[in-house]
Design brief:
The chain has about 375 residues and is α/β, with parallel strands linked by helices. It has a domain at about 20-70 and about 180-255: 3-Layer(aba) Sandwich (Rossmann fold), CATH 3.40.50.11750. Helices cover about 40% and strands about 15% of the residues. It has helices at about 5-30, 45-55, 55-60, 80-90, 110-115, 125-135, 155-165, 180-190, 200-210, 215-220, 230-245, 265-275, 305-310, 325-330, 350-355, 360-365; strands at about 35-40, 65, 95, 120-125, 140-150, 170-175, 195-200, 225, 250-255, 275-285, 285-295. Helix 11 (about 230-245) links the parallel strand 8 and strand 9. Helix 1 (about 5-30) packs parallel to helix 11 and helix 7 (about 155-165) crosses helix 12 (about 265-275).
Length: about 375
């Protein structure tokens, strides 16, 4: 076995090599850039990596990185949060959620406040945990809060299929799944759009593949490069995108080849197709986007928590002072919002991008609070 000092030395050498390669990549991008280009990273995890490592400051001033609507927590609309709060408050309900949804503000309350009031709200790590709870508590209604992009949809579909096989009449799902390709189209169709290329999220494409991006690249003439989340991944994705733009190409390329295949995960896609169908979905701060979400197919409609607890018709407005919608669409940086860091902080968030671990506002607050 390696001694502790040897392990530390190997880690130091790896980090030194990575830092050197990051610098080399940034210099290569600087040399090949001949004009201004606006690139949008779609994933909130990539946004945090960019700000954490200061990658945007390594790039030439002609390259502008724009933060997109790639945080599933952030784009969950207020109405859905209000539905979750209303359901979780019911005494017969065990409400199950991923932990990052607890402090997302609704119109008046969040799920954490429901828990503090005595609601039976449980943080789970998998939707299958909620299925197990339903099996163990036949006298209670167990509801799972299903949010996320294509990445989390297969596990939720599998949980619903399992509940169906077990004939669990006390299990249901509050569905708020959204899809990335329609969101990219919405950004490109926006009257104020300035995005010329995209860095797409590697984990999403691990499931969905890249085929759905090809008609977008062709129709709009924008390169789409699927990247990972390390500093080297992101800079290599930028380099590939700039190469295409400088050469007048608009193609789908995969930087994240260690995980992503064009066809995606066929088994996962088949499971999603079995349980869900595409539907229009409202995005927080953005509005309704056609065919941008998932809803339960007729064979599984009995698992729809919104219908079961009759909360479908809820409506709510965004706080007027919050510019989350403009931030999510890449029209504003978080620190351009007048409420940023004053009225809106992680302890007192006005919008979801400030409270989510993948939110752009949270990233700016943590890594870039002081303007430079």
């Amino acid at each position: 076995m390696l001694a502790t000092h040897q392990i530390k030395l190997m880690k130091y050498v790896d980090e030194y090599r990575d830092a050197r390669r990051v610098k080399q990549l940034a210099e290569a991008i600087r040399r090949k850039t001949t004009r201004p280009w606006n690139l949008m990273e779609v994933c909130g995890g990539q946004t945090h990596a960019i700000l954490r490592f200061g990658l945007d400051r390594l790039l030439p001033p002609e390259i502008r990185l724009i933060h997109g609507p790639g945080c599933p927590v952030c784009v969950t609309p207020i109405e859905i949060i209000d539905q979750a709060v209303a359901i979780a408050r019911r005494p017969e309900v065990i409400f199950c959620s991923f932990g990052d949804m607890l402090r997302v503000p609704g119109s008046e309350n969040d799920l954490l406040s429901v828990k503090s009031e005595g609601g039976d709200l449980r943080v789970v790590y998998s939707p299958m945990d909620a299925v197990a709870l339903a099996g163990d508590h036949a006298d209670r209604e167990v509801v799972f809060f299903a949010i996320g992009f294509e990445t989390t949809a297969p596990a939720v579909a599998m949980a619903i299929a399992q509940a169906d096989r077990l004939a669990l009449a006390n299990f249901s799902v509050l569905v708020s799944h959204v899809l990335v390709p329609p969101a990219i189209r919405a950004v490109l169709d926006s009257p104020g759009n300035v995005v010329q290329g995209f860095l797409a999220a590697g984990h999403v494409c691990t499931v969905m593949g890249t085929r759905q991006y090809e008609p977008i690249a062709q129709q709009y003439g924008v390169p789409i490069v699927v990247t990972g989340f390390e500093a080297l991944d992101i800079l290599q994705g930028v380099a590939m995108c700039v190469d295409q733009l400088e050469q007048g190409r608009a193609e789908v390329e995969i930087q994240y080849t260690r995980c992503v295949r064009p066809e995606g995960n066929r088994a996962a896609l088949a499971q999603v197709e079995k349980v869900f169908q595409t539907a229009g979905r409202k995005w927080r701060g953005i509005g309704q986007i056609p065919d941008s979400g998932l809803s339960l197919r007729a064979d599984y409609a009995r698992f729809d928590a919104a219908a079961r607890f009759r909360v479908e018709g809820m409506q709510a407005d965004e706080p007027a002072v919050c510019l989350a919608g403009a931030v999510l669409q890449g029209h504003k940086r978080p620190d351009e919002c007048p409420a940023f860091g004053t009225e809106c902080t992680p302890e007192n968030p006005l919008g979801a991008p400030m409270v989510s671990a993948e939110g752009a506002c949270a990233a700016y607050y943590r890594y870039r609070r002081q303007k430079k």
